[in-house]
Amino acid sequence: MVSTSGPMNHARGALKSSIQRWVWKKAEQVLKHGERECVCGYWPTAVGKYLAALVRTGAYPLETAFPKYSVEDMLALLDCFHHPFEGGCAFCAVDWTVQVNCAINLTANHFDGLCLDCMEASRPKHGDVDADYWQQLGSINGR
Q1: What is the pTM of this model?
Q2: 3-class DSSP state for residue 122?
Q3: What is the C-alpha separation between 138 and 143, in angstroms, rounded?
Q4: In whole angstroms, what is the distance from residue 32 CA to residue 19 CA?
C-alpha cells in the first residue's frame, strides 16, 4: 500500500480528484439537465448503466478503490471499462467510453515530472531538510 503522508498524500489526492472530475463531468450534466433537455426520457437509465459499468471495473466508487490500489492500477482498471454505446436522443446518447478514456488520459498527464516513489525517496529522512542536505555533502571514507 502506498504511503499516505505529506506530499504523497497530496499527490494521490490530486490524482483522485482528477479522475473523479472527468468520470463524473458528463454524468453530472445529464443528471442536472435531463428532465429539461432529454426528449426521450432515457437519461436516468443512461447514467445508471454508466455508473454500473464503472463499478464493474473495480475502480469505482473511488472512495472504496483508492485505498486498495495505486493510481497506475486505478487507471489500468478504468482502461478495462466497457459500456456499449446506447442511443437515446442526442442529449442522453453519450459515448461513455470516450468520457472514461478522457479521464484516464487527463489524469495520466498529471504524472509528468517526478513519480510518487521519487517524491517519497526525496522526503527528509531525519525530519530536517537542511540536515539531510548537509549530510549528503559530508565526507565519505575521509574524502
Answers
A1: 0.73
A2: coil
A3: 9
A4: 20
Locate 41 and state its grid cell: 426520457
CA distance 26 to 32: 10
Domain assignments of the chain as residue spans, ordered by start: 6-137
| Alpha-carbon gap, residue 115 to 77, rounded angstroms | 19
pLDDT in tens, the chain (143 residues): 444 466 677 778 888 999 999 999 999 999 999 999 999 999 999 999 999 999 999 999 999 999 999 888 999 999 999 998 887 899 999 999 999 999 999 998 876 555 555 655 555 566 666 666 666 656 666 65
Task: Tell me the one-letter amino acid at 99.
Answer: Q
